[in-house]
Amino acid sequence: xxxxxxxxxxxxxxxxxxxxxxxxxxxxxxxxxxxxxxxGAFLYDADGRRYLDFCLSWGPxxxxxxxxxxxxxxQKAAAAGTSFGASTRREVEVARLIKEAFPSIEKVRLVSxxxxxxxxxxxxxxxxxxxxxxxxxxxxxxxxxDSLLVKAGSGSATFGRPDSLGIPxxxxxxxxxxxxxxxxxxxxVFKREGKNLAAFILEPVPANMGVVLPKPGYxxxxxxxxxxxxxxxxxxxxxxxxxxxxxxxxxxxxxxxDLTCLGKILGGGLPLAAFGGKAKWTDALAPTGGVYxxxxxSGNPLATAASLWMLKSLSREKIYRELDRKxxxxxxxxxxxxxxxRWPVQLNSIGSMFTLFFTPKAVIDFRSAKRxxxxxxAKFFHGLLRQGxxxxxxxxxxxxxxxxxxxxxxxxxxxxxxxxxxxxx
Length: 425
Ligand code: PMP
Description:
The longest helix has 23 residues, at 319-341. This protein is 40% helix and 14% strand.
């Protein structure tokens, strides 16, 4: 088993053998598979096994692995130089297309990771409001930003250790949290702290406690409270941006954020992310303004070449309608099986993203998500893996479909889900 050998070797040189914690499979046990290549909806591991991929690099690959046009664009860009540390035409084009997708963005800066986008947006919000505190959702994950590793989801949720060591309590005390979908808690925190809050940052559709949908009126209530108290509303659309619609959750729910963070699909699998909003805020960034933010590789030529191909393809094609229809059919087939067998699981889904929670009760926030039986999820995950299906290796994550997932493969997936779940329950 090459994966096993590679993982043993990796552990000698890389902390826990991985460059990002969830990859270590701690939440599901077993040895992580080492990937050799990906094509379309499929992943191929070091042992030559093929998997239908629903993790899709945690979201970016809405066209599947290695789309030809993107590969060509990146190859061409690489031949012309991998980095200049000076401005290029493509950065301007990417910014213009981002604005087309997100009308709430007047100006946008490119960075290299979602973490960086969020960190910069929070600093900007603190800078322009001259306030210190920020509000986030319990179970919301925004990258490994010091201030936001408080009651965080994703990898830190499965480790049962929501806060990281190494973050001064003086800093995390400035981060307040509320449970998602709880109107009363929301009103209460704004009444008490509204005028001290620089920003309310949230994933409009949380995906890092698994996918959880906002109750009707919840995002609207957030929008009106933030406006009333002069708190900047930051939508972290690193996952939902270009996923739920070309204009992300803001288009889907018709709500405009003050600042928006983007990543994942934006770079099509290359390191690219962005943050932006109304010019009256973004003009506070250096060198015009006093909020410092910078990056050697920001707007990298390879990443912007990939991004331009992604954004042009997404804006041109009717991809969302087709993808959502295909996904909707897949989800209803799973739902039918859940009802038929009365399995104690919940399928939460929107557009082309989903989570299957191993709990009998509806999942509406972090607390209800955490009631899930993670041991059953681990069995489910490995049962699927053995059958050539690769899901996110943790209960508290979103899974995705791509335009490369063919209906016949999805039908086969439903049959395998059924077989594996019958064995668990
Ligand atoms: N925000 C959200 C909503 C995310 O899901 C993630 C990563 N999963 C991030 C921010 C951080 O992005 P990155 O891993 O690129 O730093």
